[in-house]
Design goal:
Elements: H1 2-11, E1 14-15, E2 19-25, E3 31-37, E4 41-45, E5 51-55, H2 56-65, H3 71-81, E6 93-95
Length: 98
């Protein structure tokens, strides 16, 4: 959780007892907030029937970079931009780590 606290401080994010809160302005100029549960991993379940557990730190970074996209799309773009190997499709639990 220390890495998460570092990201909160670095980006000036908000938090409550159970969430990391990412404030952002949408394309229409409205102020919004994205709430991510404070857990070590965040599970993304894909329509193709598989799921991947991403570290919360990666989900925070992806949301900051692409706040208006679905989290799954933001994570995909972040991995692609950073040349991180994308997790293989599997019907079993897959943990992603950099």
């Amino acid at each position: 959780m220390e890495e998460i606290n570092e990201l909160i401080k670095r980006y000036g994010l908000e938090e409550d007892g159970e969430h990391v809160i990412i404030p952002f302005t949408d394309s229409n100029g409205r102020k919004k907030r994205c709430y991510l549960l404070k857990r070590k991993f965040i599970r993304i379940i894909y329509p193709q029937g598989y799921f991947v557990d991403y570290p919360l730190t990666e989900a925070i970074e992806a949301t900051i970079r692409h706040p208006e996209l679905l989290l799954s799309e933001a994570l995909y773009l972040m991995c692609k931009e950073s040349n991180i190997e994308l997790p293989a499709a599997s019907s079993k639990n897959t943990e992603y780590s950099d």
